[in-house]
TrEMBL record:
Pathway in which this enzyme or protein is active: Carbohydrate biosynthesis; gluconeogenesis
Main location: endoplasmic reticulum
A Pfam family: PAP2
Membrane topology: Multi-pass membrane protein
Entry EC number(s): 3.1.3.9
Lineage: superkingdom: Eukaryota
Gene behind the chain: G6pc3
Subcellular location: Endoplasmic reticulum membrane
Recorded GO CC terms: endoplasmic reticulum membrane
Protein name listed in UniProt: Glucose-6-phosphatase 3
Record organism: Cepphus grylle (Black guillemot)
């Protein structure tokens, strides 16, 4: 893993060495793709366009948020900002990295929550826009433009997380793949016709499930707050 982490640090170095004008762009992207935005921005917009799509965005965002936390408990994952010092790499070679206000994230980093939750929750919105484009145009470019924008957004989010030293490249790739798979798998199981009581029960079940898993992990002697 040290070789993989070292390669990730060098990639982050190369990314930070890019044009200075991109710095604000990467920081803006990483802020835009904060998982909270799924619930405060994407869900209301999707719900306004179509109720079922809105509920799907909310439901998949909720499940992927929960699953991302659980995966991090088991996969752990170093954070570049901390690893570069704790590993002793800075004593072996010259490492030129910059720190940003959002660099000092703590907790496990694998997989990337920004990539995974954004990728999962936006999937139903992208497929709905693709279907809408297909009904109004015969152009393949127009039909594929929503998925093209989706792919470019996830790529930009992933690069922004590497740029601010929040994640290694392999954590970003894992988050993107997990998010797209979750979105694809859960979209057909959206409980759009369920009552509010179902969602309250589901939220409580996820909460109790995470507390139970947390207790079991601690009981097994694993320090998830390492």
């Amino acid at each position: 893993m040290d070789a993989l982490h070292t390669a990730g640090i060098h990639f982050a170095e190369a990314l930070q060495a890019g044009p200075p004008c991109l710095e604000k762009f990467w920081i803006w992207v990483t802020s835009l793709a904060d998982p909270k935005c799924i619930f405060t921005i994407c869900f209301p917009l999707a719900y306004f366009l179509d109720r079922k799509v809105g509920v799907s965005v909310l439901w998949i965002g909720l499940v992927s948020e929960w699953l991302n936390v659980v995966l991090k408990w088991f996969l752990f994952g170093e954070r570049p900002f901390w690893w570069v010092h704790e590993s002793g790499l800075t004593r072996k070679e010259l490492v030129t990295l910059r720190q940003f206000a959002v660099s000092c994230e703590t907790g496990p980093g694998d997989p990337s929550g920004h990539c995974m939750i954004t990728g999962a929750a936006l999937w139903p919105l992208v497929t709905a826009l693709t279907a809408l484009a297909s009904r109004h145009s015969r152009s393949l470019v127009v039909k594929l433009s929503p998925f093209g924008a989706y792919t470019l957004l996830l790529l930009a989010v992933g690069l922004s997380r590497i740029f601010v030293l929040a994640h290694f490249p392999h954590q970003v790739v894992g988050g993107i793949l997990a998010g797209a798979a979750l979105g694809w798998g859960l979209q057909g199981h959206t409980p759009a016709t369920r009552t509010m009581g179902f969602f309250v029960a589901a939220a409580l079940a996820l909460l109790l499930g995470s507390l139970t898993l947390h207790s079991l992990v601690i009981a097994a002697g694993i320090d998830i707050d390492w």
